[in-house]
From TrEMBL, chains A, B:
Essential cofactor(s): FAD
Protein name: D-lactate dehydrogenase
InterPro entries per record: FAD-bd_oxidored_4_C (IPR004113), FAD-bd_PCMH (IPR016166), FAD-bd_PCMH-like_sf (IPR036318), FAD-bd_PCMH_sub1 (IPR016167), FAD-bd_PCMH_sub2 (IPR016169), FAD-linked_Oxase-like_C (IPR016164), FAD-oxidored/transferase_4 (IPR051264), Oxid_FAD_bind_N (IPR006094)
Keywords: FAD, Flavoprotein, Oxidoreductase
Length: 507, 507
């Protein structure tokens, strides 16, 4: 109630006043002076070299240029030191020193995030987890995987697959993202519906606090059921490295499914999409693993580089496309369920065309279509990307509202999302223009977020807050919740050295 | 590492010294004097009546006698005031007053816990959630249930069943336990393997803090995916009312399975049980919902009042019994899977006898056998009940060790547990003796907990800490973790009015 009242009372005009243009677009606070951090010195480098080997204290300009930039090229820091510890003890010594010396630190994993959470704002020291990459073990009885935070997601997936298990998260950047980054952003991905949130599967963590304490939060010994003490480890999940540095995880991994199926479907109306979703839940039941939605424009853009199996005979493109995947334990049974589901959905007229993957490579090709939406849209111009949750019936109304706000501007809007989770990826680009256009950004923000909240959604479904959405937290949560969050931050990071000016609103 | 070192270095002798007889058995701290709380006065009653109606400020002796006693009759408080607010605003006014006036408060739900978490130690005011019992709604698209904390679990189950969903927790006391109590103890139950922990399914909470602030933690608007801010709501799950009073919850409820099957099986050796468990996971896959274990003695006791379908032809009782349940979406498929699993398990000789339920009433009768273990054991004498997690291969070694420690004493040991979750319920009674026998309790504690920790288990799998296990937290978590927990407690309950001297170790 408090939240919706707040949003209503702020309204469009006041929202704009509170988060004016300067505040929205200027992402550079006067860092060093306002927060009291100092620039790292040669003496600091000498200290870091005494803990790590010389090669793990990186000052090479080319490397640092890469580590200071996110892959969307939207964020750029000026850090001059990259540290690559390989033990939690080394992380502890580094953080303890930085807290004492008032040196700001940005924990960094695979740099695949979209909100600038792991990119320095200014001269923060980059603390990379990439060398913390040991896989300890996978317990054959419980399926609990224990590993260090810097393991690449794809490496963990391969390790688990060899042992008949899978990691309960999967996403496009699996080849470079690290599990510690996935945890610190509470990454979602396509199989959230089937396996639950990453946080739901974490049983234990090892975390290093800024004062050098190493918290073993049910990490050394992990049990499926453990009710001894507060669930402190949950605080570090999705906290974007603002409370401590996650160095290890114990995570529940389900059995590898014996059969996978995928179908690529077309629906005329959005209402049909909602009906198909309900039919899929009831007919596919426990084997429904993913249900992805793409709109006409997204498929049209992808079709330039991909063969889309469901182009209408006259070359026209349908209004809605769905990619459905199942994970089950019995190929024959799963196929029967899929066939019954498709029969029902087509009999009712909700699905107008569809194709079933015949093998794993066809399943891959369906996912290639879905995952090509992002680069296909990015190729057209400067991208304004929004990751939001919405009540399902609101998807179209929200999109219509935002499209009408963009009328008269040279923009392109293409959308897709993990619709079974209520997660929409809303994308606007300016065709041919590859730099920010304030006339577009002004029409989008903050109105877009206000609309999401008014409709009962979340302004960040799975990409986090970082340095792009933290200012908006004030209209997401009421003052009491923000106070509680600030208390948590202070309890763990009293000097505020970890990822300053991110995640929480700037003071 | 820290934990295991600590345990090893304490050893049996030192453990005993640290948690000596007086400390283990005397569960009554000198409450009022040490913590600075005062006894409630007539003026306090006048204030409470000004907030609630007279009938909701209960001083009736008979009612209070019941509310001061837990159902195991192990714990007894002396509270003289029971409050029954029906809104979170009333809870806020009560707590704010109690914090200012230094009045200690025990939040109380259905009083079905086993560790005395909701029973006063002395004169604490009992804050009952029983009148906070509104069910708001179940979202047809997402399956998110929103309700107040005082709803009876069975009522929620019926409400959800009417809407083709189920509550992701089920346990024997469903007829009287409240969802707020389930949340505050992070209750486990029999379907944990299939639906995950209760905490994993909670998307939002409404919580009242001792200073009267009402935190709406994604409660008014809940989305499956929401990455805006720290996961503060997770702190209140399993916290036994020591940080705030949970007044409402938004919880993910899965679709109701269309088919349920159950089998009751017998195994000779414990190693066979482990093999059956692995076969069940791989053959039943996604439909495996519950796998319960009972030992010979437990079944023998139950057989006095129940027809056990698998008594051997000569009347002998097998060494191990398993109850397996599946939840699926297609009866034919599920039956085929079950048959294949049983065929494999019997072919390999891991299952020596078995029976399949033919209908729902037979499924119920299997569960009656399992759920009768508790009362059957309790009827024999004074009960020493332990709820622990253990690595699966350790179950028998742990039981053997504890049995050998009890040799020479007149005791009976019967065991059962949610074995698929690694959750053992270890039970000792003294036949014919219905009061505590220190020669028995001395043999059990603290050695039992030390043995569990040494084997990598948890001393509380699903029953919480309350006033029975909180002292042992010092050997479960290292000093740094305890400091972190104390900081969390202080951040939310600085005066310490909520459930004092419970959950965390007494200072």
């Amino acid at each position: 109630m408090v939240r919706s009242l707040l949003v209503q009372s702020l309204g469009f005009r006041n929202c704009h006043r509170q988060f004016g243009k300067r505040d929205c677009l200027s992402l550079r606070p006067r860092f060093s002076s306002s927060a009291g951090f100092r620039s790292p010195s040669d003496n600091d480098v000498i200290f870091f070299r005494s803990i790590l080997s010389d090669t793990r204290v990186v000052q090479d300009e080319d490397t640092l240029r890469v580590r200071n930039t996110d892959w969307t090229k939207q964020f750029q820091g000026r850090s001059k030191i990259l540290l690559q510890p390989s033990t939690s003890g080394q992380v502890a010594e580094i953080l303890q020193y930085c807290q004492r010396e008032k040196l700001a630190v940005v924990p960094q994993a695979g740099r695949t995030g979209l909100v600038g959470g792991s990119i320095p704002l200014e001269e923060e020291i980059i603390l990379s987890t990439e060398k913390l990459n040991l896989i300890h073990d996978l317990n054959a009885y419980t399926g609990i995987l224990r590993c260090q935070a810097g393991c690449i997601l794809a490496d963990l997936q391969a390790y688990c697959a060899d042992r008949d298990h899978l990691v309960p998260v999967d996403l496009g950047s699996k080849g470079s993202c690290q599990i510690g980054g996935n945890l610190s952003t509470n990454a979602g991905g396509q199989y959230y519906y089937r396996y639950g949130s990453l946080a739901a599967n974490v049983l234990g963590l090892e975390v290093v606090l800024p004062d050098g304490r190493i918290l073993n939060l049910n990490y050394q010994h992990s049990n499926l059921k453990d009710n001894t003490g507060y669930k402190i480890h949950q605080l570090f999940l999705g906290a974007e490295g603002t409370l401590g540095v996650v160095t290890g995880v114990a995570m529940l991994c389900p059995r590898m499914p014996r059969s996978r199926q995928a179908a690529f479907l077309a629906c005329d109306r959005y209402e049909d999409v909602l009906q198909v979703l309900q039919t899929a839940k009831s007919e596919l039941g426990e084997i429904l693993a993913a249900l992805e939605w793409m709109d006409q424009k997204a498929v049209e853009l992808v079709s330039n580089n991909h063969t889309i199996p469901l182009l209408a005979s006259d070359g026209a493109i349908y209004n809605n496309y769905l990619l459905i995947e199942t994970h089950g334990s019995c190929p024959d049974h799963d196929q029967e369920k899929m066939e019954k589901f498709l029969e029902l959905a087509m009999d009712k007229g909700h699905v107008v065309d569809g194709v079933l993957a015949q093998d794993l490579s066809q399943i891959e090709s369906f996912w290639n279509i879905r995952e090509s939406a992002n680069p296909a849209v990015a190729a057209t111009g400067y991208g304004y990307k929004y990751d939001v949750s919405l009540p399902l019936p609101e998807f179209v109304h929200f999109i219509d509202e935002m499209r009408s706000r963009l009328q008269g501007l040279n923009t392109l809007n293409a959308n897709w999302g993990h619709i079974v989770d209520g997660n929409l990826h809303f994308n606007v680009t300016t065709p041919g223009l590859f730099q920010v256009d304030e006339s577009v950004s002004d029409r989008l923000q903050p109105y877009l977020f206000e609309s999401v909240l008014r409709r009962g959604g979340s302004i960040s479904a799975e990409h986090g807050l970082g340095q792009t959405k933290n200012s908006y937290l004030k209209i997401v949560h009421d003052a009491d919740c923000l106070i509680a969050m600030q208390k948590i931050k202070y309890a763990f990071d009293p000097v505020g050295i970890l990822n300053p000016h991110k995640f929480l609103p700037r003071q």
